[in-house]
Hints:
By secondary structure, the protein is an alpha/beta fold.
Amino acid sequence: xxxxxxxxxxxxxxxxxxxxxxxxxxxxxxxxxxxxxxxxxxxxxxxxxxxxxxxxxxxxxxxxxxxxxxxxxxxxxxxxxxxxxxxxxxxxxxxxxxxxxxxxxxxxxxxxxxxxxxxxxxxxxxxxxxxxxxxxxxxxxxxxxxxxxxxxxxxxxxxxxxxxx
Length: 165
């Protein structure tokens, strides 16, 4: 039997000008090792954002964070902690949610929550529920586990971000 240990999400990447909050479920094992949002190379999140905003791609995490801040995008996860034996959302147990409503009070310019997967939206619905005055949008997962959709298809869906900023 594989022993599961409790893991914790990162602090939010957010600033007073943030208008959109992108929510994942929980960082992958690779992301936790690298201490970077969407740090697994199989996850195309950053590639999608650079294409959507028509900017030259950079592997540097500081450049990635600069992009989201420039575009008034905040990053966080629905879950604050959980137990999980792999990076799959289906392996998550004993989950606890982040205080997303508290973050929205602290950063009132955030008017749209974008879920980077169906599972993130499900956990949000389970633990947070509805938030008045905030638009909820679910986009296709950028994870490598979502292989049924090509990068160009994912980019097409993620173009919606531009309409929310």
